[in-house]
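Sample A.
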Amino acid sequence: MDRIESLAGRRIPRAVTDTALALVLAAVCMALPVAMPSAGPELRSTDAGFFVLVLLTTLPLAVHRFLPLPVLLVMSVSAATLQGLHYIPELSGPQGTSIGPTYAAVGTAVFLTATRSTPRIATLVVSVFIPAAAVTEAVLAPDGHRIAALFTDAVLLVAAWALGRLTRARAAIRDQAVERAAALEREQVANARAAVMEERARIARELHDIVAHNVSLMVVQTIAADRVQERDAAKAHELHGTIEETGRATVTELRRLLDVLRTDEEAEGDPSKEPPQPTLENLPALVDSVRAAGLEVDFSTSGTPAELPAGSHLTVYRVVQEALTNTLKHAGRTRTVLRVAWEPERARLTVRLCDDGPRPDGERAADDSSDAPVRPPVVHGAGHGLVGMRERVGAVGGSLHTGIRPGGGYCVHAVIPLPTTAPASSLAPRHEGHFPYAEHPRPAGR
C-alpha cells in the first residue's frame, strides 16, 4: 500500500489516492459500452440509470478511508445491480469469463478494506461478505455457468482480501522494525551520554589531583619564602616567582576542571592521596610494558620539548595508553609505530600511533619464538575508549582523529596545543624590575 500511496519518495495523502482511484474507475466503467465488441453479448443500452449505477459503483471509493465497510457494501450492490439489469456482461457466461472494470472496482474496495480495517472487520469481510457476493454472482449468472461464476468471484475477492492483509502485515512489521531501530538508537545515545559523563567525571578527578598538588606546592613555597625572606632576599624573590608561575598554571587547570565537570558524582576515597599522575616522561616505561606483552612498538620523538601543562601531560599519556591497549586488544601482536613530535614553532605537540592491523593466521614476528597462536582479529567497535580519548583531548583544547588506514590497520592522531608565551607587557607586574621566572623556568606542579 505504501507503494500505491507514494510517488518520488513522497507520501501522498489517502484522500488524493482514493479520489484518483474513484475517478479513474468511473471513467473506465463509463467507457465500457463503447469498448465492447459488436459480437459480444447483448446488453442494455446506456441511459441515466447506467450512469447513476456506475457512479455508485466507483465514486464511494473516494470516502473509503472514513467508512470502509459501508462503502464496500454500496459498491458491491451497485455492481450487482448493473449486472442484473444487463448493463454489463456476466462474470461467467457463454462467451467465457469477463472481469470488467466494475468487478475491479469491487476488488479494489475489498483490498482497501482488508488493508485499513481492524482484524474483526477483515474477518467479517472474508467470512460473510465474500461468500454472499459469490452466491449473488452465481444467482445472476445464466444457467450452466453458475458454479463457474461462483468460484471466479470468490477467487477474485479472496485474492484481493489476502493481498490486503499481507500488505497490512508487512506495514506492521516495518513499523515495528522502525520502532525497534529508534529504540536502539535512543539506547545507544543514552549509553554514549553515560560514557561521556563517566569519563568527564574521571578526568575531573584527575585534574583535581593536579590542582590540589599545585596548591599544596604553593603553600609549601610560600612558607619557605617567608622563612628565608630575611636571610636570603634573592632566594625569597625566586620562590615568589615560582609561586606566581604555579598559581597561573593552577588557575588554567582549574578552568579546565570546571569545563569538564558535568556530573555531581563524588570521587570515591580521597583523590589527594593517589600517586602523582603520569607525564610524557613515563611514555618509555609504558612502551616497554606493552612490548613485554608482545606488541612490536617503534617509538621515537622529534623536535625540542617545550613547557606543557600537567593536564596536557596526562592527556597525552592517557591517549597513548588507550591507543596501545586497543591495538593489543584488537590487532594482537602486530607492528605499531608511535611518533611524538614537538612543534614549538606551530605551538603544538602531535602524537601519532598507527598499527598494521591483525596478522594473517600463522604469521609470526621475527623475534617471536613462542608457540602461542596469533590472536584472531576482533572487529573495531564503537566502544567507550574513543569517547574517552576525544573528551580528554577536547578538554585541553586539542583535536583527535581516528580511523582505519587504507592499506590496513588503525591510526590515532592527536594534536595538543602548546602554551604560547605572552608579551612582557601583558604579564603580571614584575618583581623588582625583572621577570620573576625567566631565568628559572619550571613546569607547573613539578
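Sample B.
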Amino acid sequence: MHPREAARLEALLDLDILDTAPEDHFTAICETARDLFRAPIALVSLVTETDQWFKGRCGIGLPGTERGESFCTHTVVSDEVLVVEDAAQDPRFRDSLLVVGAERVRFYAGAPLEVAPGLQVGSLCVMDRVPRTFTARQRGQLQNLARIVTAQLRLHKTERLLREREARLAHLARHDPLTGLPNRLQFRECLQGEIARAQRGHDGFALLCLDLDRFKAINDSFGHHVGDRLLQSVADRLRAAVRDEDVVARLGGDEFVVIQPGADRARAITLAQRLIAALSSPFDLDGHERQIGVSIGIALAAAGPVHGEALHTRADKALYAAKASGRCTFQFAQTVEDGAREPVLRRRGAA
C-alpha cells in the first residue's frame, strides 16, 4: 500500500480519466514501448483502490485486473522503475493470475506515473512471457516514456478544467448570476425561437411581463442583501409555477418575463393567476414575513408574422396598465384588431 494512499487515490480521481474511451496517443505510446523493448505486451495501467485499469494497451485483451493480481500495485509505491526478471520465481507474483493464467507473464518492467510529488497513480509497463533482464539504459528509456504518459494525464486534467471553466463562462453569459434564471440575452434568443415557430405556422405563444409590487420598499428599508434573497425566492416560486417548456427570465432589477409556448388567452389567464397567487404568499426573510405582489402585462402572438420588439413593448405597456389599475393583477395588451399597430417581419427582398 502506498504510504499516502488516500492522497494518491484523490489525485487519480481528480484526473477524471478512469473508464474513459480509448485514446490514440496512449495506444501509440504502448506500441512504441512494445517495439522499443521488443516485448509482446505494453500497458498504461492506472491503479485504483481495488483494481488496475488499462488506459492504453497492446498485446493483451484484458481491460484490467484486480489490484491484488497486478504488478503495478507494487510499482506505485516508489518513484523507481520496478523490474521483475522472472515472475515465476518471485514470491510476490508467482501465484498471480497474470503469471499462472492464460497470459503466462514471466517478465515485467514498470515505470511509475507520478502526477504530483510523491503521488504515483499507475505505471507504464512492458511484459514478456519469457524471463529477461533489463539494462540501466532501458530503465531510463522506460522512465522517459512514462514522463510523456504523465504529461498526457496532466493535459487531460487541464482540458477538463478548461471545459468546466467554456461551460461556466457560457452559463454566466446567458444566465442571471443572482437567480440563475435566463438573462436578457437568453430571453431574446428564446423569444426569437418562438417567433420563428409561429412564422412557420405553429401555435402562437404568450409573452408575460412581470414587475414586483412593493419590492422597492423592502429593498430600501432592509438593504440589498435582503432584497437579493427576496429576488432569489421569487425566482424559485416562478420556476415552480410554470411548465418545463415555459421560459422564465430575469431582465434586471425586479423585472421578469415568461414565454408561454402554445398559449391562447385562456391559458395565459390561468398562468397569470397562478403567478400572482405564487408571489402573493408571504416570504420569510430573516424570520420576518414580508409580503409583495406582482403586476403582469400579457401580449399574445398568434401563428403568423410577429415582431419581437413590438410584442415586448405591447406586453410592457399592458404591465404599466396593470400597475395603474391597482397592482397584483394582469392586463392584456391591445391586439391589432383593437387598434394597436404592430410592425411585422418581412422576408428579405419582400415589398
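B remarks: The longest strand covers residues 107-116. Residues 211 and 255 are 5 Å apart (CA to CA).
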